[in-house]
Amino acid sequence: MKIGTHDLHLHSISVHFTNALYPVAVFFLVLSHFYEQSMCLFTYFHLMILATVSVPLSYATGLIEWRQKYQGAKVRIFITKYRYGALLFLVGTACTLWYGIYPDIVMTSGGLRVLFLVLNISLLPLIVYLGSLGGKLIFGSAH
Protein backbone atom coordinates (compact mmCIF):
# COMPACT_ATOMS: atom_id res chain seq x y z
CA MET A 1 0.00 0.00 0.00
CA LYS A 2 1.41 3.37 -0.99
CA ILE A 3 1.00 6.37 1.26
CA GLY A 4 2.62 9.30 -0.46
CA THR A 5 6.02 8.15 -1.62
CA HIS A 6 6.26 5.40 0.99
CA ASP A 7 5.47 1.82 0.07
CA LEU A 8 4.11 0.30 3.27
CA HIS A 9 3.16 -3.32 3.53
CA LEU A 10 0.20 -2.80 5.85
CA HIS A 11 -1.78 -5.64 4.35
CA SER A 12 1.02 -8.15 4.87
CA ILE A 13 1.54 -6.95 8.43
CA SER A 14 -2.14 -7.04 9.36
CA VAL A 15 -2.70 -10.43 7.75
CA HIS A 16 0.22 -12.03 9.58
CA PHE A 17 -1.09 -10.62 12.86
CA THR A 18 -4.49 -12.23 12.30
CA ASN A 19 -3.02 -15.45 10.92
CA ALA A 20 -0.90 -15.86 14.04
CA LEU A 21 -3.58 -15.06 16.59
CA TYR A 22 -6.30 -17.48 15.49
CA PRO A 23 -4.12 -20.61 15.57
CA VAL A 24 -2.62 -19.64 18.93
CA ALA A 25 -6.13 -19.04 20.30
CA VAL A 26 -7.26 -22.47 19.11
CA PHE A 27 -4.09 -23.93 20.64
CA PHE A 28 -5.08 -22.47 24.04
CA LEU A 29 -8.61 -23.81 23.60
CA VAL A 30 -7.15 -27.30 23.12
CA LEU A 31 -4.73 -26.79 26.03
CA SER A 32 -7.68 -25.96 28.26
CA HIS A 33 -8.65 -29.63 28.10
CA PHE A 34 -5.31 -30.68 29.57
CA TYR A 35 -4.14 -27.87 31.85
CA GLU A 36 -5.55 -25.18 34.10
CA GLN A 37 -8.72 -24.45 32.27
CA SER A 38 -9.50 -20.95 33.48
CA MET A 39 -6.18 -19.39 32.43
CA CYS A 40 -6.14 -21.17 29.06
CA LEU A 41 -9.71 -20.12 28.32
CA PHE A 42 -9.02 -16.56 29.43
CA THR A 43 -6.13 -16.46 26.96
CA TYR A 44 -8.20 -18.17 24.22
CA PHE A 45 -11.02 -15.64 24.51
CA HIS A 46 -8.83 -12.56 24.49
CA LEU A 47 -6.77 -13.81 21.54
CA MET A 48 -10.02 -14.51 19.68
CA ILE A 49 -11.18 -10.96 20.35
CA LEU A 50 -7.89 -9.53 19.04
CA ALA A 51 -7.91 -11.78 15.98
CA THR A 52 -11.54 -11.11 15.12
CA VAL A 53 -11.14 -7.36 15.53
CA SER A 54 -8.05 -7.44 13.30
CA VAL A 55 -9.80 -9.21 10.40
CA PRO A 56 -11.60 -6.06 9.14
CA LEU A 57 -8.27 -4.21 9.13
CA SER A 58 -6.69 -7.00 7.08
CA TYR A 59 -9.69 -6.97 4.78
CA ALA A 60 -9.60 -3.18 4.32
CA THR A 61 -5.85 -3.06 3.65
CA GLY A 62 -6.31 -5.91 1.17
CA LEU A 63 -8.96 -3.92 -0.70
CA ILE A 64 -6.71 -0.87 -0.80
CA GLU A 65 -3.74 -2.91 -2.04
CA TRP A 66 -5.95 -4.65 -4.63
CA ARG A 67 -7.02 -1.27 -5.99
CA GLN A 68 -3.53 0.25 -5.93
CA LYS A 69 -1.34 -2.67 -6.98
CA TYR A 70 -3.74 -4.66 -9.17
CA GLN A 71 -5.97 -1.82 -10.44
CA GLY A 72 -9.04 -3.55 -8.98
CA ALA A 73 -8.79 -6.48 -11.40
CA LYS A 74 -11.84 -8.68 -11.04
CA VAL A 75 -10.18 -12.03 -11.45
CA ARG A 76 -11.07 -15.27 -9.73
CA ILE A 77 -8.25 -15.27 -7.15
CA PHE A 78 -9.31 -11.90 -5.72
CA ILE A 79 -12.99 -12.83 -5.61
CA THR A 80 -12.06 -16.07 -3.84
CA LYS A 81 -9.83 -14.26 -1.35
CA TYR A 82 -12.53 -11.77 -0.44
CA ARG A 83 -15.20 -14.45 -0.06
CA TYR A 84 -13.00 -16.61 2.14
CA GLY A 85 -11.87 -13.52 4.06
CA ALA A 86 -15.51 -12.74 4.81
CA LEU A 87 -16.05 -16.36 5.83
CA LEU A 88 -13.05 -16.17 8.16
CA PHE A 89 -14.54 -13.08 9.79
CA LEU A 90 -17.95 -14.73 10.17
CA VAL A 91 -16.56 -17.94 11.67
CA GLY A 92 -14.17 -16.03 13.96
CA THR A 93 -16.98 -13.75 15.09
CA ALA A 94 -19.29 -16.72 15.69
CA CYS A 95 -16.67 -18.50 17.82
CA THR A 96 -15.84 -15.37 19.80
CA LEU A 97 -19.46 -14.41 20.44
CA TRP A 98 -20.48 -17.98 21.25
CA TYR A 99 -17.81 -18.28 23.91
CA GLY A 100 -18.43 -14.73 25.14
CA ILE A 101 -22.15 -15.38 25.59
CA TYR A 102 -21.91 -18.99 26.73
CA PRO A 103 -18.42 -19.76 28.13
CA ASP A 104 -19.68 -23.00 29.65
CA ILE A 105 -19.83 -24.46 26.14
CA VAL A 106 -16.37 -25.94 26.71
CA MET A 107 -17.58 -27.66 29.89
CA THR A 108 -20.66 -29.26 28.38
CA SER A 109 -20.74 -32.58 26.67
CA GLY A 110 -22.50 -33.44 23.47
CA GLY A 111 -23.11 -32.08 20.04
CA LEU A 112 -22.94 -28.35 20.78
CA ARG A 113 -19.49 -28.65 22.32
CA VAL A 114 -18.30 -30.70 19.33
CA LEU A 115 -19.78 -28.10 16.96
CA PHE A 116 -18.01 -25.34 18.89
CA LEU A 117 -14.68 -27.15 18.66
CA VAL A 118 -15.14 -27.96 14.97
CA LEU A 119 -16.05 -24.34 14.24
CA ASN A 120 -12.88 -23.16 15.99
CA ILE A 121 -10.68 -25.72 14.25
CA SER A 122 -12.24 -24.77 10.90
CA LEU A 123 -10.49 -21.42 11.22
CA LEU A 124 -7.16 -23.12 10.58
CA PRO A 125 -7.76 -24.43 7.03
CA LEU A 126 -9.40 -21.10 6.14
CA ILE A 127 -6.24 -19.27 7.19
CA VAL A 128 -3.99 -21.71 5.34
CA TYR A 129 -6.06 -21.44 2.16
CA LEU A 130 -6.15 -17.64 2.28
CA GLY A 131 -2.39 -17.62 2.87
CA SER A 132 -1.78 -19.91 -0.08
CA LEU A 133 -3.82 -17.61 -2.33
CA GLY A 134 -1.81 -14.64 -1.10
CA GLY A 135 1.40 -16.55 -1.75
CA LYS A 136 0.29 -17.21 -5.32
CA LEU A 137 -0.28 -13.50 -5.81
CA ILE A 138 3.07 -12.50 -4.35
CA PHE A 139 5.30 -15.31 -5.59
CA GLY A 140 3.36 -16.49 -8.63
CA SER A 141 1.54 -19.70 -9.28
CA ALA A 142 3.46 -22.95 -9.43
CA HIS A 143 1.19 -24.07 -12.28
Mean pLDDT: 89
Shape: elongated
- Count every helix, treating DSSP H or I runs of 4 or more residues as helices: 5
| Residue fraction in strands | under 5%
In short:
This protein is mostly helical and 143 residues long.
What does this structure look like?
The structure is a single chain. The model has no long low-confidence stretch (mean pLDDT 89). With 143 residues, the chain is mostly helical. Helix 1 (10-31) packs antiparallel against helix 2 (37-70), helix 2 (37-70) runs antiparallel to helix 3 and helix 3 (76-101) packs antiparallel against helix 5. It is elongated, with a radius of gyration of 17 Å. Strands 1-2 form a two-stranded antiparallel sheet. Strand 1 (2-3) and strand 2 (6-7) form a beta hairpin. It contains five helices and two strands; from the N terminus they run E-E-H-H-H-H-H. The chain has helices at 10-31, 37-70, 76-101, 111-121, 123-139; strands spanning 2-3, 6-7. Helix content is 77%, strand content 3%.
Features of this protein?
single chain, 143 residues, mainly alpha, two-stranded antiparallel sheet, 5 helices, elongated
Topology (elements, then pairings):
Layout: E1 2-3, E2 6-7, H1 10-31, H2 37-70, H3 76-101, H4 111-121, H5 123-139
Antiparallel strand pairs: 1-2
Helix pairs in contact: 1-2, 2-3, 3-5
